[in-house]
Amino acid sequence: QAQLVESGGGSVQAGGSLRLSCAATGSFFTINTMGWYRQGPRSQRELAASITKDGSTNYANSVKGRFSISRDNVKNTVYLEMSSLKPEDTGVYYCYAAPTLSTGAVYTVWGQGTQVTVSS
To answer: How far is 28 from 41, CA to CA, in rounded Å?
Structure first.
């Protein structure tokens, strides 16, 4: 089974930048989609950004133009560059991945979450 190890996050003032990283370790054949969900203090978990193995990306409308997702397929690591941060970006950011086993089975694995706090 795969495990995800997140790093980055923290506190920043509005307009600042942060970078999140998430590395997948363990046993799997390949990972197609990786990405980040986030959950604010008074909101449901929502997709922030995702990226497939071939580099296709998807962003929430609220982060388009400010966040950039990328990945290193050799290191099985996904990155989220966040700039022009706003207080409403505050929340716990969860990395996720959809690894594929050698049997062809696909499952979803989640990171432990990392806090991002943006002050005004």
So the answer is: 34
Task: Please list, in sequence order, all residues whose beta carbon lies within 8 angstroms of the beta carbon of residue 65, skipping any fewer than 6 positions away.
Answer: none
- Beta strand pairing call for 67-72 and 77-82: antiparallel
**What b/e sequence results for 59-98 when a residue is b if at least 16 CB atoms lie within 10 Å of its CB, and e otherwise?**
beeebeeebbbebeeeebbbbbebeebeeebbbbbbbbbb
Output the six-digit token pair for 111.
């990171």
Cα distances (Å, whole numbers) of residue 81 to 48, 71, 102: 11, 11, 32
**pLDDT tens digit sequence for 40-83:** 999 999 999 999 999 999 999 999 999 999 999 999 999 999 99
